[in-house]
Design brief:
111 residues, alpha+beta, hypothetical protein PF0899 fold, 3-stranded mixed beta sheet, 3-stranded antiparallel beta sheet, 2 helices, 6 strands, 26% helix, elongated
Length: 111
C-alpha cells in the first residue's frame, strides 16, 4: 500500500510549510489516472497526522478527471483510463490532466 508512504510525505510537507503552527485543513488534488487510492489516503491521514501539527486537521480530496488531446485529430477528450482511445480511434494522445497529486491548500489556525 504505497498510499501510506504518500500520506506520510503529505504530512511531512505540510508540517514543514506550517513552520510549527497548527494546521486545521489540508486540500489535495488527486488525478483519477494517478494510480492512487484516495480512500486509502483518507484512511491513513488521521493516524499519520497524530503527534504532528496536522493532528485533528480535516482532509479534503478533490478528484481530477483525466483529459487528453489526440495527436492525430487534435480533439480534446475525457480519459477514464490511461488507455482510452480518442473518438477517431487513435491511441496516441497527450495527457493534459488526471495524473496529478498536489497539495493545493492548507489552512493554519490563528497564532
Amino acid at each position: 500500500m504505497h498510499e501510506l508512504g504518500i500520506t506520510r510525505n503529505i504530512v511531512a510537507i505540510v508540517s514543514d510549510a506550517a513552520k510549527g503552527r497548527r494546521v486545521s485543513r489540508v486540500t489535495l488534488e488527486v488525478g483519477k489516472l494517478a494510480g492512487v487510492m484516495t480512500g486509502a489516503i483518507a484512511f491513513c491521514f488521521d493516524v499519520v497526522a497524530a503527534g504532528t501539527p496536522l493532528e485533528g486537521a480535516s482532509l479534503e480530496i478533490r478528484e481530477v478527471e483525466g483529459r487528453a488531446r489526440c495527436r492525430s485529430c487534435g480533439t480534446e477528450f475525457t480519459t477514464p483510463t490511461l488507455y482510452t482511445p480518442c473518438g477517431c480511434g487513435a491511441r496516441d494522445a497527450i495527457r493534459l490532466q488526471g495524473e496529478e497529486l498536489k497539495i493545493t491548500t492548507m489552512e493554519l489556525e490563528a497564532a
